[in-house]
Amino acid sequence: MVTTAMASETPGTSAVPFSSGSATEAGNTGAALVGELGTARTAGSWIGADGRPVVAVTDAQAAATVKKAGAEPKMVSHSMNELKAATATLKAAPRVAGTAWAVDYKTNQVMVEADSTVSSSDWSDLKRVAAGIGSFVQMQRSEGKFTTRLNGAQPILSTGGRCSAGFNVTNGTTDFILTAGHCGPANTIWFDDSQGNQQLGTTINTQFPGNDFSLIQYASGKAGDNADVVAIGNGQGVRITGAADATVGEKVFRSGSTSGLHDGTVTALNATVNYPEGTVTGLIQTNVCAEPGDSGGPLFSNGIALGMTSGGSGDCTTGGVTFFQPVTRAMAALNVQLIVTKQAAGGQSAAPAPSASANHSAIAPSTATPGSTAPVTGEETSLIARLTDTRNIGPGLLVVGGSLIALVGTRFIRSEQDRKAYQRYYSATWG
C-alpha cells in the first residue's frame, strides 16, 4: 500500500533539518520595505549577488529609507503600479496562446515572450499593444513552445497521462497530495503501477486554468510516516519544514519524475502564461529546466516549499523557462496545511532564502515508488555533493533538494471497463 506522496526517508539515513541564515533575513527585509513604502514608490525587491536585499524605488526619500534599513536602493523610472497597469493592459488584449509576460524587477520592465506557435499577425498585434503602453514593455520570441508538463514520466498514472506529485498536505483529518491542476479533473483516479493494480488516490478538487493546482485524497486517508521527508538521491533524505512565497534572485531546486533534480534562480513573480488550454496567472518564473512528466513536482529552497511545476518551454538538455504555481496560494484556496517535520511545526514559520552559488546539474530520477522506504537511487553528481558537503555550502543549503516521485492521472475512470482499458493500454505501453 502506498502511504506517502514522496520518496520517504531511507532506513539507516538521517534527514537534514532546516537551518535559517542571513539570506532569509535579507529576503524578509526587502519584502518588508516594499510593504512599508507602497507600490507607488517601489517596484519590487530581490536578492543581490552579494546576498543583500535590493529594493527598486522611485524617489530619493524612499531610497534613503531603504538605505537606512540596511538594504540597497535602486532608482527606477516606473513604479509597481505602472508595471501592473501594463500587465493588465496585456491581459485585456485578445488572448494569444503561446505568449507569456512578467515584471522584471531588476530591469524595471515588463517582458513579453512569444513561442514558436505564435503567428506573425498575432505577434504584430501584440507588439502594437505593447507600443501603446510604453517603451518599458520589451518583446522577444523564443524557439520553444509553452506547454504544461504532462506525460512522459514513470508509470503512476491514469488513462489520460502522467504527472509528478507535489507536497503532502492535510486538513487536520485527512491527508492529500498537492500537485498541478492541469494533471486531471475532479474524480481522476491515480495508480502507482503500470498494471493499474494499486490505487493511490482520487482528485477531489482542481483549479485550471486561472490557477494550476489540484488536491488528491489518499485512498487510505493518510500520507503515512515520513510524509515530510523527500529524497535527494543516494539514500539521503531532507525534511520540508515550511512553506513561503518565492523571492526574485532566490536559488531554488525543482524535482520531477522525468528529469530528476535541477537547480536555478527565481527570475520573476506574478507571471502570466497563455497555455493552449487556457491562461494561468500569478506564477513564479524561473530559469530551472523541466520536461514533460515533471508537472506538479515541487519547487523548494532551504527546506521551504515554494511551488508546484506548471509548465514552460525548453528541456533539460538545452535549458528553458519553467513556471510554478505558488504553494501558499494553493494551500490557502484549498484550506490545507503542509505536512512538515514535528520539530518545525511547533516553532516559527521559516522563510525561503537563496542558497550558495551552484551550476546546473542533475540527479537521475529515483526508482523508489511514492511512500516506499526503498533506497533512493541515483548517480552522485556535483549538485548532490554541494547539497550535503558542509565545507562548500551555508547551513541552510543542507536541506535543499528532494525528489517527489508520485505521479497523477488526468482523466476520469468511472467504471471497471475503464480500469481494464487502463490496464490493457499501460501493460502494452509501459509493462
Structure, explained:
The protein is an alpha+beta fold and 431 residues long. The chain folds into two domains: 1-20 and 97-431, no CATH class; 22-75. It has helices spanning 22-37, 60-68, 80-92, 120-133, 327-334, 342-345, 382-388, 416-429; strands at 15-16, 42-47, 53-57, 72-75, 99-104, 109-114, 137-141, 147-148, 157-158, 161-162, 167-170, 175-179, 189-191, 199-207, 213-218, 229-231, 237-239, 242-243, 251-256, 260-275, 278-286, 298-301, 304-315, 319-326, 337-338. The protein has a six-stranded antiparallel beta barrel with strand order 19-20-21-24-23-22. A six-stranded antiparallel beta sheet has the order 13-14-15-12-11-25, covered by helices on one side. It has a three-stranded mixed beta sheet with strand order 1-17-16, with no helix packed on it. A hairpin with a 2-residue loop joins strand 20 and strand 21. The longest helix has 16 residues, at 22-37.
